[in-house]
Every structure is written in structure tokens, then in C-alpha cells.
Write a structure and sequence with these properties.
8 strands; two-stranded parallel sheet; two-stranded antiparallel sheet; mainly alpha; 20 helices; elongated; homotetramer
Chain lengths: ~500, ~500, ~500, ~500
Amino acid sequence: MKSKIASEEEVMRRAALETFPTEAYSAHVLTDCFEDAKRLFLESLIEVHYAHAIMLAEQQIISSEEEIALLRALGDLDLDAIRGTAYDGSFEDLFFYIEELLKKACGDDIAGRLHTARSRNDIDVTIYRMRLRVDALQVAQSAISLRGVLLDIAERHHETIIPAYTHTQPAQPTTLAHFALAMVEVLGRDIERLRRATDAINYSPLGSCAITTTGFPINRDRTAELLGFDGCTVNSYAGIGAVDYFTELLAAVAVLMVNVGKFVQEFLLMAMREFGAINLSDGYVQSSSIMPQKRNPVALEHVRILASKAFAQATGVMSAIHNTPFGDINDVEDDLQPMIAQALRDAVRSLSLFSASLDTATFNLDILRRRAAEGFITVTELADTIVRREGLPFKLAHKIVSRSVRFALDASSEITYDIFRAAAREITGDVLSITRAEFDAALDPEHFVQVRTILGGPAPAETRRAAAVEREKECLDKEWYERCSKALGDYKLRLRATANIAVSAQGLSVG
Amino acid sequence: MKSKIASEEEVMRRAALETFPTEAYSAHVLTDCFEDAKRLFLESLIEVHYAHAIMLAEQQIISSEEEIALLRALGDLDLDAIRGTAYDGSFEDLFFYIEELLKKACGDDIAGRLHTARSRNDIDVTIYRMRLRVDALQVAQSAISLRGVLLDIAERHHETIIPAYTHTQPAQPTTLAHFALAMVEVLGRDIERLRRATDAINYSPLGSCAITTTGFPINRDRTAELLGFDGCTVNSYAGIGAVDYFTELLAAVAVLMVNVGKFVQEFLLMAMREFGAINLSDGYVQSSSIMPQKRNPVALEHVRILASKAFAQATGVMSAIHNTPFGDINDVEDDLQPMIAQALRDAVRSLSLFSASLDTATFNLDILRRRAAEGFITVTELADTIVRREGLPFKLAHKIVSRSVRFALDASSEITYDIFRAAAREITGDVLSITRAEFDAALDPEHFVQVRTILGGPAPAETRRAAAVEREKECLDKEWYERCSKALGDYKLRLRATANIAVSAQGLSVG
Amino acid sequence: MKSKIASEEEVMRRAALETFPTEAYSAHVLTDCFEDAKRLFLESLIEVHYAHAIMLAEQQIISSEEEIALLRALGDLDLDAIRGTAYDGSFEDLFFYIEELLKKACGDDIAGRLHTARSRNDIDVTIYRMRLRVDALQVAQSAISLRGVLLDIAERHHETIIPAYTHTQPAQPTTLAHFALAMVEVLGRDIERLRRATDAINYSPLGSCAITTTGFPINRDRTAELLGFDGCTVNSYAGIGAVDYFTELLAAVAVLMVNVGKFVQEFLLMAMREFGAINLSDGYVQSSSIMPQKRNPVALEHVRILASKAFAQATGVMSAIHNTPFGDINDVEDDLQPMIAQALRDAVRSLSLFSASLDTATFNLDILRRRAAEGFITVTELADTIVRREGLPFKLAHKIVSRSVRFALDASSEITYDIFRAAAREITGDVLSITRAEFDAALDPEHFVQVRTILGGPAPAETRRAAAVEREKECLDKEWYERCSKALGDYKLRLRATANIAVSAQGLSVG
Amino acid sequence: MKSKIASEEEVMRRAALETFPTEAYSAHVLTDCFEDAKRLFLESLIEVHYAHAIMLAEQQIISSEEEIALLRALGDLDLDAIRGTAYDGSFEDLFFYIEELLKKACGDDIAGRLHTARSRNDIDVTIYRMRLRVDALQVAQSAISLRGVLLDIAERHHETIIPAYTHTQPAQPTTLAHFALAMVEVLGRDIERLRRATDAINYSPLGSCAITTTGFPINRDRTAELLGFDGCTVNSYAGIGAVDYFTELLAAVAVLMVNVGKFVQEFLLMAMREFGAINLSDGYVQSSSIMPQKRNPVALEHVRILASKAFAQATGVMSAIHNTPFGDINDVEDDLQPMIAQALRDAVRSLSLFSASLDTATFNLDILRRRAAEGFITVTELADTIVRREGLPFKLAHKIVSRSVRFALDASSEITYDIFRAAAREITGDVLSITRAEFDAALDPEHFVQVRTILGGPAPAETRRAAAVEREKECLDKEWYERCSKALGDYKLRLRATANIAVSAQGLSVG
């Protein structure tokens, strides 16, 4: 127990002894930030240095000699050594650590010039966006792959009859293609949102400086181009303070993960022994040596929880920054960015594992077909047939069928032609003209599906048409992905080449 | 204490006495659902009935006489009486209640025909979308208005100097226009997302029926057109099971509310007595009769909590449906839809109150100008000036300024020309050629702002340019809003007119 | 398009015309708040007025005549008329509306005295707590009931064999009692948390006044007692600013709803046709006239979504107030309280519907027993038996069983004694001494369950013991509930009686 | 573009080639799980092995020789080598990897015996709880420390006058002690919840086995004791399936983090230049070399975002598992546990950094005192004084004060005695008897505070009383912490000693 409370003067004395950073600040903030920064942002930070140096020289804000000295110092940085460095409190963070290395390499004065007309603030948002565009693209690519696998399933199964459930009960026959295409269609919209969010990230805030740009005649477009951005953000206050460059993406991921969670629930159900509708390959199933028939579909459980985690983190990031000021604040920076990265990583893990496990999954066609034929789930079509064939009012047709089901249940049988005729006679007092063949067709799940040819229906002709449309979309999305992916590789080469040209005026090369 | 546990047989006996709905089911589910349905979906439901009847007749699935009987029965419904009806357990829900009314009006048989080639499932999603598109449009419109008010502020204040804060400390001068345009720019992207989400809702799932469409030759495009939709959804399983028609909107609202929360924090701060930067009109301020100078900016607190509620509910809806099956389930239906509506309503309330209170807010220009000039927050520009004017290395310029600040702090003064020269002499051992006028300009906040002319900077010419661009976007967004809004009015007239034409063949009119 | 931006002077002119409350403030804030206040807090507010008046007189801060005038004015208030009043902007809120009524009844001066030594701030938190304690108690009571129903199921089914699943596959036999008791045990802890949270609410902040108490010699304990509180909160700043009086409860509800969500998933699965393990009574099942055998267990779906909504709202409230200041702010007041009430109401609805639907649910004992015997899920017991009976190493026993399963699978059979002996011979080269009876017992699900007698196991003796313990806890929880419930009724009578005694000095009575 | 869709047979062929685990399963699941398990659970897993072996021997389920062989094999494990092992897909996870090592050390047969009467399922939940109790204790300890620092502040500042704000405006004088004690009181309840949650974790589920316990005569109490648990969980299904052992803790952390977020908002405001009320030591402030007076209170921003992250992750975990089945599922296991650990770690970081930065923070007493005296915030006390001193009705007193404030505002002055008398005369037409000294006292903030002596008020005598009560609670909480902390060290020694005794029968020792 404390015996005595310190006076305010004693506290001041203690305070006067503390220098930045204290042990507590290092332990609870800076160490984590340094490790995270090395892991997530190191390369981007170096690239920003390159691009800024080149632009400053082009704009004659620094001299050619200064540029060359800076580029050579950058080229000489040993990234592996930096990655291997542990945080020791002698510098604030990765930025200052690298600044120290540059000072050692080319002197304080020249190293200092690199910081002309910029600020930690715009550098930070720039490297966050550089990381994010890569992660965003990977999420989009994983979603495109999952849609591809589901589209493959659809195309293999235009004729595969399965029961569709409503309120968890088998309700009507449909096809596996129709079911898979439902997910394909939804994922198509997810991919659209991911594309837009990914494109929206790729604007350079560099030049926003602390928050009000600079009086130096910098060329924002040039650094944007050198760093592979599609253009510049505009307002510099927003360049620093806006958060929608990541919240739009996270919101799209949250929407996607809710969808993935719904899809995987369906496949997990199909994998239960009582359903027996899907077989994962051994590669995704945990089995027991003593009960070899017990096949735990663990991969799908992991898909579910990874999607759940990604969802929770994506919305959690938004909740975390909610009600913070609009401007330059730590709340959206070094502590938060790793949570964003983790959300995206878990999304990619979930999507990739889902694709991989479905890619070699097979279906128990017999069981599915049988389930789609039993339990009277085709009787609505029988009623429709009576209406159309006999011209009877809907209500009467409905009554006849209902009576037939009742008779069949009492007899522990399916509805037979005889049962049907008996029911019809009882209701109408008359004999219907529907033939046995027509009757059989009306109750046949294949027939049920075949007649549903309208837009969005399960008839194979319609699902083939829909699948073709989706394939085209897939094609366009893949092109987009390839284009973005290439651009993110190309700028790196271009940046290095530009630096080399500058340096090679002196017969040297960079990095 | 229970003395005896019932046997399974006793439970069965008790169970056998229960009929649907039990008191508990009525009390905890159906009563709320009936009230909510009357409030949110009644008109849409009637319109769906009209459109379906017209289409069925056009497709010759029902006869012209049946159509007319149905349309007249619909026209005769007394909506106010329906709204006044309390739930009593004698029917399941609003749908069945209206079916009863129609049966009474035109007989069981004809009323029954209206339910040909459709299902509760597609009707439900259709009316949810019809409600949602209206609410979504209102959110978009409220966001457009808020942006308009902020744009007005920007255009009034291209020359108004204010301090910009970093890490909650005054950091650099900027203008009120620059600050307001940052929010305008962010809101512009929010509005874009809201437009896309609103457009995405407006596709008709009608014809998806239970989940697999129908064998009847219905015309989905026709009902879509009659109900003011832009087209049809495709896959019928997705038509029933997909949730992104509302999750995309809610995600956009969540992103928007995080932004609004950030903006309002800034204005709340400005309204604190210690800041004294903004004055709300008396209309938005709660005052005390005994302390008339205490002006509680309660409207802004309400903006914050309403935005927070909207955010929490928007993400909460996603959390609520997360990990539910993909298909037809109650989880996304009658219990959930009111929560969606409440989230959107709170978003509209927050946005509208924000617009209204800012619209007559004024700023204490003197205080803002003074804050932007004190505390040395312009000294970075002085350092830049030394670099440019004297050709000194950045590091040395920085040192001179740093020493000047130190001298000034010691003298409890701002930096004077003499202080500056003394500092420069101490550092460089030399006299700088910067004149007093140049020195004064370098420390002047207006000058600070004037030289920041690059893309996104606060210089008035640049903020004027940016404001003009935003006005154009505003113009396009308003056109979109007017177009949508008109379309949502027009279809109602068209639908009624179409019904009247059908009926008037018999010299009658509808509703 | 706006042609011209208003000048700051024009805005000031417009602002000067606005008086509190503006139309926007009424429409977006005060109207909702008035309706919510009437619905949730009216009675409590009147009671606070009674209690405060009585205490002020007892402390001689007001005179006996003033007290009587106030009590009579309060007694004369027509609550139904107040409830019927629509918000019209002529007063700020319910508090001021009632103040107006009191002024009319007993004059400005006397009505004004009621507001001595208190503030809107402490009144508000007091009435929020008075509402909350009632809602909290109802949640607790609903949880107690659900546990009771599950305990009934357990007590009916100590011998009912069912399969337990791991990773969604049948894994081992257990009993329905064991399964139900797992939920009972978890709910027991939920109830404990709810009891603590409910008790924690019931402290009176009255006397905290605006935030610093008062210089008047009020008696906080007396108002607390008159209003049915268990005592007073202490620090007055915390009395106004602390939020854990509701966050603790909401956190407990969130934890509970996650549990409920898990439980209901199990019963929904049991209700699927492929499982056929549980039958809800007709009272909770939506059926189809044409497919009478299709029984949608909609009540359970509603339980799930209502729990999900309660969960989302409970955590949403916390998210909404997160990062707001600590003190007196609107964020935790009139806009937020209805969301808290809705979260609790949905929790009660979910729990009550769950209890009611399980209360008459019956189980398909044959199906459950059969599932627990098939699929080799008892073979781990066979291996254990070999170890114990033959003294063989575990590994060898395991191998024998594994081989037996393989033989059986190849023969599309269950494991027979012959298959077992063949497998044993192949592995050990020897004949085991286990008899056919021992073999049969080892594979028998009843035997499997019977031998699991250790703490927490499914053996009927153990589940009977556990059930008895849970009954005792139930008994204590019910006593607590009755005690609290009675206290919340008693104080109302006492308060009215106290008021009447004061007034009846003059031969009159109150309300 | 894919030219051809694989047939179902081709898929089967591909599937047949896949073995567990596939590359995708390793990459997206097992690698992360292995790394996480080594980091979080390695030691606990080994300890579970020790305890189980000892208990099996004591119960004579394995022989003494087998026990010794197992204990020696366990003792010989090289934990550092295990930590250095990278995942390569040749084993499923850490459990199997260690099983392999044990098999190598003591043979398949003996190693296999260790797995008698247990399962991966109960082992997993046991080690999760062992990790969690350590983390929970650290959160509790960090909260106790923060309360201690705030209590120190309170005890230094019983007489320090500060303004209390309502609706973000200065409202009344109070003391720093009163303000700090508000947080102390709230944290006291947080600590109570953390204590309960921590205690609730510490029950051993070991012996639940797969989900139904075992037929072997194990001693659950003994393993519980050896592993430092306070007892056993009961129902084995709940032992595996229940999640409230972590959700209760996370809910308590969420509630705590909301509180911390509120507290830190207050200190961040105090640290703004416009407020200037608090000074953090240099050790927690980021400064600028060019603007030495700009002191960014970054430590407090980190406190806020770390608390926000902890909050978002804590509620996120609950959201993630919401609507998953009740039983043995991956969703609450290896993918989720690291998110729980991260939530707790961020909570500890936030709390510790908050304590550390407040511990050497000092307050600008003059500024605070001045703010508490200006702006008429003491006038309510003047009105109260008139009521008490003159016996005037409250309403009249109020009017006099209101008029005085108006006069003072018009004269740009504070209220003087003359102004007051002029106002009184105008209202009452009479001269009040209040003396200048009484008048001065009534407006004096110290007097304002001194007279507020009732329970929970700011009068120094009352805050001293309250602080003493809080110190006592602190004392009890620290004792609890020490007891728990010691217990978590002691069992480790005891377990090792017990193992050594068993082995040393043969003259050997373990580990």
C-alpha cells in the first residue's frame, strides 16, 4: 500500500527526468509499430524516397548532384539488414531509422534535402495506399477465383436435379447449376464493388505534405506516375484526413464476407452425414484412424470462421475510428493499419480455401435426385397443370392436389395416378382428362425444372444462357486483374530504371 | 418449485392442443410484424397486386373479367381502415389479411387467381426493395444537401484564414474553404456510393416465385416496368436468397456515417467556449435562462449520436444475418426490415439536422485568424523562404528558424525581424539578405496560404477551381436525384392509369 | 443551380430569425424524443417528482403547504391526456411540458420550487435507470424460464439416447438430458450475470444534480428509498457521466444472445427433414395447405433473428457511444435510450418464443436412438474395452477396431462379432477372450452412456445429480426474481401512500 | 479463358490425387495455426501432458513404468527447438508434432497411452483457458494500476478547482479530485467484472474428452489441481461447446474499453492548446524541432486507438462466432484464439500506456482555476444563496441573478456587487440584505465546492472520504491479484516437483 501521495512538485521532478520515448511508450507503441512497418511498408517507403528525389531534381528543387547522392544512398540500403533490426528506442520509428541510415550514407545535409516539400503525414498515407492496393487486388482476385470454381460447378451440372429449401425444408426441385449460379451472380456484384474500391485507392496523396501542400513548385503528377498511381487525390486536407480509401474497401469486404458466410453454410449442411450431398477430397477432410468413415469437413469450418473474422475485423476497423476527429490523428495510422491488413489477409484465406476445397468437391447425384423427388415437393406443378390442362379454377386444382397428398400420406405412399383420380373425383365429382403420362410428367422433378424457362429460372437452356453471360463478366474481370497486376509490377521496374538513368550519367547504377 | 416433470406423452397432449399461431407466437412475432408491415409496406403490397393482375391478364393467364374483378376489389380497399386494424391472431399477417379482404370483395375463386405464378417469397423481396429504394434515395438526397451547405461555406470563405490541426495541435494556417472542401470531396464519393447502391436496389425479383420461377408464361419485365423498376433481377434463387440489395446500401451508409461522425467532431470542437470558432443560430442551441451566455450546441450532439446509431444499426444488420443460410429464411425478412428502415431513418435525421444547423452557422473570423497567426505555426514557410531566397541548405535554414523560435519563447514574444536576424547571425555568423518585408510575408498566414497554389492546396485560386468542380458534380447528382424521384412518382400514376384503362372498358375506375 | 452564394452577413440575418427549436430540430430530434419519453419514461418522471417533493418538505427546503400543492398538482395530472398529446414545438420536451402543466395547476412559483436542488441531468439518469431495471428484470426472468424448459426436457430424457456431433458429424452417443443440461449450465451463468447487472442498475443518482450535487441539505437516501432503489450512487460526476449502468447489462445480454444463437442452431438442425429429430407443435409451425407435410419451423427462425438483432443492438449501443466524452452529453440520452430498450425487448421476445416453442416440442426418440447406434460411433468404447478386458496396449486395441470398421465398411455392414474376431485374429494372430455379450455391450449406445459416470458425464445417475443441482439454482433465481419484482411494485404503493399521508393532513388524497 | 469444363469424373480423378493436408489447406490454415500455437499454447500443452500422465498413473490406468517413460520423454523435449520449427505439412499441427517427438522418445506404444481417456477437444479448451487466465489477469492488473494513478491524482488535488462541462460547455466548478474519483469509481466496477471473469475462466474442462467424458476411472479434480485450476467445469458437452469462458471476459473488456475511451477523450481535450490544462512529460509527447512549443500528445492518441481496437476486436470475436453451432467446431478454436489474445493484448497496451503517461502528467492549476471562475458558472449558487438568505421564492432569486448576468454581459464585466444590487432593486423594488462578503462568497468557486458536502459531492472532506474508500478497494483488488498471480506460478513448480518425485523413484529428474 502506498503510504504517501506525491506532491505535484514531486511529479514535476519525476516528469522532468523522462525523455522521449519512455520505456512504456516503446514497449506499448513503438516496438509493435516498427515491426509492423518493416513487415508492411518498408519497400513502399523506399520507393517513395526514390520517386520524391527524382521529382525534386526534375523540378530543380534539388540539384542533380544531390539527387544522385540520394539515389545512391537509397540503392545502397540493405533491406534484409533493416528487416533484421530490432527496435531499441534509439530512434522513433522506421522512417527515422532509415533517415539515419541515409544521413550516414550521404551526409546530414543532402539527406535532409530529401524531406523538402513533404511531410511524414503524406508519406504515411501514400505507403498505406501502396500496401492497400496490393491487398485489395488480392482479395478481388480470390473472389474472381471462387466465382470461377462455382461457375465450373454450374457448367458441369445444368441437368443435375437437387432440392431447393425454403425455411430449412425441401420445397421445390431445381438444379445444381441454378443454385451455383445464384452464388455466381451475387459474387459478380461483390467483384464489381471490389474493383471500384481497389481503383479508388490508387490515387496519390503525396504532395499534401503536412496537410496544406507546400509553397515549393513540386510536381504531384510525376511522383504519382513514378509510384504506379492512376492519378492524384485533390484536396490536401482530405488527402491526409480522409479515411474512405480504406473504409470503402473494408465495407465491400464486409458485404462479401456476409455472402461467403451464407454460401459456406449451405455446403457445410450438404456435408453433414444426414445430407450426404457433397464429398470434399481427402485433402480437405480431417479423418479419424478408428472411424475412417467419419469425415470432418474442417476446411469448410475454417472458411466460415476466417470469413467471420474478416467480417468482424472489417467492421471493427470502422467502429474503432468512428467518432475520432477529421484530420491528422494517430488513430488511423500505425496501430490501425495492421488490423486492416489482417482483415484483408483473412478474407483472402477464406476465399482461397473455399475455392480450393470446392474445386475438387464432388456431389452425390443420386441422393440429391431422390430428395428432389420425394416429399411431394413437385405438387405445385401438378396443380398448375390441372389449371392449364383442365381449365379448372386455381382454387379447385389446389384442393384436388391437397386431397391427393392427404390420401398419399395416409397410405404412406407417394401420389399415384389412382390416388390422384380418386381425389379429383371426390372434389369435382367428375373424371379429369389428364392422362397418366401427363400426370407423371407433372410430378417429375426433371419436368418441373424443364418448364421453368423464364428469365432466371432453372431450365437448362436458361442456366446455360446465364452461365455464358457470367463467363463473359469473368473474362472482363480477369482482364482488369491482369492489367492492375501488371501495372503494380511495371512501375517498380520503371522507377528503378529512371533512377538508374539519373545515376548512370555518372556511370553508376542503383540497387 | 415444480414437483413433477411432465412425461413425453403429456407434452404431446399439450402440443396437440396448440394451433397456429399460439399466443406466444402472436405476442412475440406476429403483432410486431403486422404493425411494421402496415407502416412500411402496405402501399407497395397493393401496387404489387395491381401490377401482377394486369400482367396476368395481358399474358392471358387470367381472363379480362377476372382482372377487372381483381382491380376493382383492390381499388375498393380502404387503406385507412387497414392501417387502423389491430392484430388479433385471426390471420397470419398483412398479406393474408388483405387476401381475406379481397376474397370478401370478389370471391375466393377470383381472389385465389391473383396468386397464380407467384409466391409470398418474391412478393416480400419486391416490397422490401420498393421501400428501400425510397429510403435510399432520401439518404442520398440528404447527403447531397449536406454537401451543398458545406460548399456554400467554402464559397463564402475562400479567404478566411483558420488554423489546421495535426495531432490536435494547431499546425499550419489554411482557409475555411480548404477545410470545408475536404469534407465536400469526401461526401462526393459517399454520394457516388449511395447512387450506385440506390440504383442496384431497383431491380424486380417478382417472378422468382418461391425460389425457382414458374412454369406459367409470365412477363417479368412487364411487372418490373409497372412497378417502376429499372429491370429484373436474373437468377431466381438469388432473387430470393441474396441480401446484397440491402447490405451494399447499409455498407455505404456505414462508411458515410463514419465520415459524418468525423466532421461533426470538428464542429463540436469549434463550438466549445475555449475555441469559440463557430456560432450556431439560437434555433439549434439549448440555453439556460440563468446563464444566457452558456449555449449548448445540442443539435451537433444529436447529429453525432444519430450518426452513431445509424452506423451501429447498419453494421448491426450485417452482423445479425451473418452466418445464416443462403436461401429463403425469416432472418432477412419481417423482423429485420424495420431495423434496416430505422438505420436509414436515423442516417437521414443526422444528415438533415447537420445541414440545417450548419446552414445558419456563422464563424468568428477574428478568432480564427488570430489563432492561425500565433504559436509560430507559419515558421515552416520561413524556413522554406530562407532556402529559396538565400540558397542555404535546408538543414541550416531549419536551424535558424528553430533558434528564432527558441529566442522568441524565451522572450515571451512572437518572432520579430530582430530576433530572426540575431538567430541567423548566431547560426551562420553572417547577415542574411532577407528584407523585413520578405520576413513579414514569410510569417504572414495569408501569404502562407497564397503560395500554396498546387493541386489541392488552400490558395484561393485553387479552392475556387476545386469548388467549381464540386458544383458541377452537385449539379449532376441533383439531376440524378430529380430523375429518380420523378420516376418513383410517375410509375404510381402510370400503374393506376393502366388499371383504370382495363376497368374502364366497363365504364368504371379504380381507387 | 444556386446562382449566388450568400455572404456571411446574409447568413447572420437568416440566423437571427431562427428561434429554438427550429422546424428541423423539432422534426429530426424533439418529436421522436417526445414520443419515446411518453412511451418509456412518463410514469417514472412523475414518481421522481413525487419523491423529490416529499423529500424537500421533509428536509424543510420547501414548506408543507408548498409540498401539498405540488403533490396535488401531480395527482391531478391526466396521464392519458399527456400520452395523447402530439409534439408541436411549443415546449422543448416532456419534462417542460409537464412543468407547464404543473405551473398551470399550482402557479409558477410553487411549481418552480420543485426544481430546487436538482437538475434535468440527474432526473434523466434516474428515470433511465428506473426503466432499465424493469427491462433488465424481464430479460432475467425470460432467461430463467428458458432454463426451466430445458431443465424439464433434461428431466424427461435422462435415458434418451441421441448422437453428439463433432465438426458437424455424429461422433458419440450421449443423452438428450446431457445435451440439454449443457445449455442449462451455460444459461445458469448467463442468469448470474444478468442478476448482477440488474442489481447494479438499481442505485439512485438523484441528488447528483447538474453534475456536482448541491449546497442544499437534501437527503439522497430518502429519494432513493421512495423510488425503490437499493441505495445511492456515490460520485456525482460519475452519477451523470458513467454509462456502465447500461453497458454492463447490454454486455451480459450480448453474451447471452450469442449462447441463445448457438442453442437455436442445434434445434433448427434437428427440425430439418433430413434430421427429423424434433417436432414443434402446430402452434409454432408454418405449414402449406398444399403440402401439409412441409412444416416450416418458423418460430425457431424468429428466435434466431430476434436474438441476432438483440445482439447487434446491444453491441451497437456500445459502439455508438464509444469515443464520446465522459460527462453530460446527449449521446447517451434521449436518442440512445430507445435503442437500449429495443435491444432488451428483442432479447425478451427471442427468449420467450424459444421457451414457448420448446415447451411443447417433442422428440423422435426412435430416429435419435438409431442415429446414435449407426455409423460406428460407439467404436471408441470397443477399443477401450479391449484395453481393459485383454490388457492389450491401446495402440493394438485401436488397430483391431480400425480393421473391424474397415471390414464392415467393405461388407456394407455394421461390425458383427464375427467381423470383430476376424479382425482381431488378423492383427494379433490370436483369439481374444471378449465374449459376444461383452462385444455387444461395448458397441451398445446405452452401455456407452452408462459407463460415463464421472463428473459431467452422460450416465443417467450423473445427469440426475446435475439436474438436481440446477433445480436448486433455479429455485434461488426465482426467489431473487420474485423479490425484485415485488420491490418494484411495492415502492409505487409506498410512494403514493406517503404522498397521501402528507396531503391528507388536509383531508385530501392524491391521484 | 477456360475452353472446356471438366466432367464430374475428371474432378473425381483430381480429387483422388489429393491427400491431407493440401497445399491450400497448409498455406491458409495450418501454417498460421502452427505459428500461433507455438506462440500461445506450447507450454500449457506440455503441462497438460505432464498432469494427465501423472493422473493416469495415480489412477492405475497406466503403469508406473509407462508414467516414468512419458515424464522423461516430456522432460527431454527441447522447447526452443520446437519454437524454431517451421511448418512443413508433414504433420497436422503442434499437437501431432509433439506426439511424434514423444513417439520417437519413448516408442509408439507408450506415447499412445498418454492419449488414453482424453481427446484433442478437451486438451484444446484446457490450454485455451490456461492462456486466457494469464491474459485476463494482466488486463485486470493494468486496470488496477490505472485506477491507482487516477487515485493518486485525486489525492493530490482535493482542493484543485476545475470547471466541469455539460454539453461541452463549462457549467460548474468542481475539483480535480472529484473528477478523477468519478473515473476511479467507474474503474472499480470494471475491475470487479474483470475479477469475476478471470475467476470464471479458471475451471478445468479436462476429462470432458471428445464431448461425453470417458468410461475410464479418471480423476478430473487431480488434473485440475495439478494445472492450477480452481476446480472442474461440470457438464462435458458444455465443457467442449460453451464459449462464455471467453465471451464473459471479452464483454467485460468491451465495457472497460468504452470507459477508457471516454476518459482519454477528456485528457486529450485538456491537452489541446486552447485548453492548456494538462502537461504530459516529454517522454510521451512528440515534438517538432522547428516548433518546440508544438507538443503532440501522441501517447493519448495511441491510448484511444488501442482501446478502440481492443473494443472492436472484443465485440468482433462475439460477432464472429454468433450463429455457429453449439458443440465442437473449429470456429471457436485455432483461428479465433489469436484474435482473442490480440484483443486482450491491445487492452493491456492501452491501459498501461494510459497509466504511464498520466503518472507524470501535471496540471496547469492557474488556468483551471481561472476557467472555473469565469463565464458566470457559479451563478446558480448565488441564486441558491438568495433563496436561503432572503427567503425569497426560487423564481424571484433566479430572475435577479439572470438580470445580473445580463447587466454584466452588457457591461463586458463579471457580476459585481453593484451590478447585483442594481438588478435586485429592479426586480424586487427593494434592497437585499446580502452583504458584499456573502455575495463574494456566493460567486467564489472555492465556496461553490466547499458547500457541496453531500454524498458524492466535490467538497474536499467528501472527496477525502471517498478516496479512502477507494483505496481500501484497491488494497483488496491488489491482494486478489497477488493471490492469483502467485497461484499461476506455484502450480508450475508443484507440477514439475510431482513429476520429479515420480521419476526420482528411479534416481532421475525431469526437464
